[in-house]
């Protein structure tokens, strides 16, 4: 029927747009990235416009119904900001800062909706320029006489990391019809685009970031030869099966750092294609009562699918070891 969208076609189109964004990020093609992101934002905008029109047509303006659709009450600062955008007929030239509450909600939605970001140490570092971390193999606590000097020992136990190094840009095309919907709907659009764009870009950075003007990904070798700011990939270890012996030797043992720490849980990050072709059959068992149970492994591990992981590779590690600090300049 005219005017009725096929959800499957819409989802397929969105997945294709997301794949284009991932490809552009991996290729470092700025123009391709911008075009793909604008296309994704346009698709989200059209969805929201149709949703708003449907609610108006059916006269559903109840606050509870709106809340169920992601339309939340705005703070006075948020109202002021979005009204400034509407009066300006776009984001360009708006001097008002994006309220911190909007940015915080985006970070909350990112973490709640993304398994990989939920697993790692993902921190909102807005307003923070340095982050102190423990130096892996050094124990900053030690026994000694009360008169022993401690400063040098403690200095060796911690690292200071700058958190203001890289910039992630996103594009927010906005139609006049979107502005006409008002501040609440505009807020939903802004958050939806930022969440989707950041989801894709951050996942790619976490998994395969080169280190050049972007974070260093899980598959990169921190001790490898850096060429023009780009870190090389780690040397992969062949994993022929998922037996206790193979996983213990090739996954768990290296993570203990030669017995210097206990490893209680790990994440296995794989491409969806590899998950369904290789891991799913090997980790799914039929129980005695006739039910299938999936994700069964002989080690304490959580499997996470990521389109950013190259096919044929898997990253195994302690999730908390990977730190990603993300902040915002509060300007769109």
Automatic annotation (TrEMBL):
- Looking at the Swiss-Prot or TrEMBL record, what is one Pfam family this protein matches? Phage_capsid
Origin: domain of life: Bacteria
Locations listed in the record: Virion
InterPro entries hit by this protein = Phage_capsid (IPR024455), Phage_capsid-like_C (IPR054612)
**Transmembrane stretches, by residue range?**
none
Q: Please list the residue ranges annotated as the Phage capsid-like C-terminal domain.
A: 97-297
The main location is virion
State the protein's name. Phage major capsid protein
Which species is this record about? Answer: Lysinibacillus halotolerans
């Amino acid at each position: 029927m005219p005017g009725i969208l096929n959800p499957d076609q819409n989802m397929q189109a969105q997945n294709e747009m997301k794949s284009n964004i991932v490809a552009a990020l991996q290729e470092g093609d700025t123009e391709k990235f911008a075009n793909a992101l604008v296309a994704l934002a346009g698709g989200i905008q059209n969805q929201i416009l149709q949703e708003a029109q449907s609610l108006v047509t059916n006269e559903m303006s109840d606050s509870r119904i709106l809340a169920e659709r992601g339309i939340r009450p705005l703070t006075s600062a948020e109202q002021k900001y979005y009204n400034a955008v509407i009066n300006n007929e776009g984001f360009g030239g708006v001097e008002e800062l994006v309220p911190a509450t909007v940015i915080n909600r985006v970070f909350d939605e990112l973490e709640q909706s993304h398994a990989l970001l939920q697993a790692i140490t993902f921190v909102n570092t807005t307003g923070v320029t340095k982050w102190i971390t423990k130096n892996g193999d050094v124990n900053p606590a030690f026994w000694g006489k009360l008169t022993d000097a401690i400063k040098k020992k403690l200095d060796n136990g911690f690292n200071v990391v700058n958190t203001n190094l890289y910039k992630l840009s996103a594009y927010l095309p906005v139609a006049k019809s979107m502005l006409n919907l008002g501040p609440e709907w505009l807020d939903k659009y802004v958050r939806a685009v930022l969440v989707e764009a950041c989801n894709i870009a951050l996942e790619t950075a976490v998994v395969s970031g080169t280190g050049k003007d972007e974070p260093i990904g899980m598959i990169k070798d921190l001790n490898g030869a850096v060429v023009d700011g780009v870190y090389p990939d780690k040397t992969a270890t062949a994993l022929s099966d998922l037996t206790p012996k193979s996983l213990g030797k090739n996954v768990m043992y290296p993570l203990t750092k030669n017995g210097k720490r206990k490893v209680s849980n790990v994440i296995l990050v794989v491409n969806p294609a590899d998950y369904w072709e290789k891991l799913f059959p090997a980790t799914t068992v039929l129980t005695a009562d006739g039910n299938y149970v999936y994700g069964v492994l002989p080690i304490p591990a959580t499997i996470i699918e990521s389109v950013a992981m190259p096919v044929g590779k898997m990253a195994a590690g302690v999730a908390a070891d990977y730190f990603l600090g993300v902040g915002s300049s509060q300007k769109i």
